[in-house]
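Contributing new complexes? Match this layout with magnesium ion.
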Amino acid sequence: MALRAVSKRFGATQVLDGIELGIAPGELIVLLGRSGCGKSTLLRIVAGLSEPTSGRVEIGGRDVTGLEPRERDLAMVFQSYALYPHLDVASNIAFPLMIRGVAASERRARVEEVARLLGLEALLDRRPAALSGGQRQRVAIGRALVRRPPLYLFDEPLSNLDAGLRSRMRAELRALHARLGATMLYVTHDQTEAMTLADRIVVLEAGRVQQVAPPEEIYRAPANRFVAEFVGQPPINLIEGEVRGGRFVARAHAAPPLCALPGVPDGACVLGVRPEHVRVEPDDGAGALRAEVTLAEPIGDRTHLHLDLGGLALRATVGGRDAFRYREGDRVALGIDGAVCHRFDPRTGQRVS
Ligand SMILES: Nc1ncnc2c1ncn2[C@@H]1O[C@H](COP(=O)(O)OP(=O)(O)OP(=O)(O)O)[C@@H](O)[C@H]1O
Ligand SMILES: [Mg+2]
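Output block (do not edit by hand):
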């Protein structure tokens, strides 16, 4: 399927601005962006529930922009999924088959298959009112999965599930995608979900596509400051400064150069340093970069450190044997390898390669 220059305005508000996106058959595309950036709006336009102000939607090579939702062969799981309150779980899941006149025996077989997949076998006789939020969400997913259209749209389908169930469902969805070979367009604001599920991630911000790339590339070669800061936990350090004589010097801060950038021409620059790329060692008094730990947040296998380097705040992550090594108030020596840092243009925010 494809989106061609899709824009959407609500009154004076431009919610989507010239979205271009081509999705190959069988691809699992995750649309990632923060709350309010236009994800649901875009999905509703693909589904035919909302009309674009301009632009076209193509599914299976044909222009479907003017078509009704039921004329587009797709299934959608909504962010606010509405189940039929008077129908039990089995009938809720079977509903799309019922309105298409699928025979009762086949309906039963498909519902059972989907129920097994989603762990709903014991709940098939219940009404939605007697289900937890997470169970209802799984019924809504089941209702979409029970048909076999070539295109599935998911709008944050796992947001009501607890962490354990969410990670299991992620794996299930991934496996299901491999088995069905269907095209999936999946919306989330959760970067972990995006990284683990996607063939390619589309990062959306302010109604514009910021980058389209496989997860690894989004992380290792972010197209701009926004993508760099949005993906990665804890977030990347973005440091304003300049390159001078092949070294990066942070602005408004008295410390020595942070790292070597051999061959990089002089000029203003924003340096991006992932927390895991800040090397932390006990301070032996000899290093050039000496900092103080202002906060240590152990999370088990790793600890997130907040550091003060002569007035410059930095985040670092230490793990392995060092996971519980440092505490607030410790003095440490830092090392930053310029070769793994990102550089961004301070004016445009675009990555400089
Ligand atoms: N019918 C509408 N009329 C006016 N503004 C709308 C309408 N629908 C959405 N918006 C606005 O468009 C913007 C994008 O909304 P949308 O629901 O697409 O965001 P989202 O990315 O799905 O956010 P979330 O992650 O919170 O679900 C928001 O600012 C929202 O207020
Ligand atoms: Mg939404």
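Reviewers usually confirm one structural detail per submission. For this one: The chain has eight helices and 20 strands.
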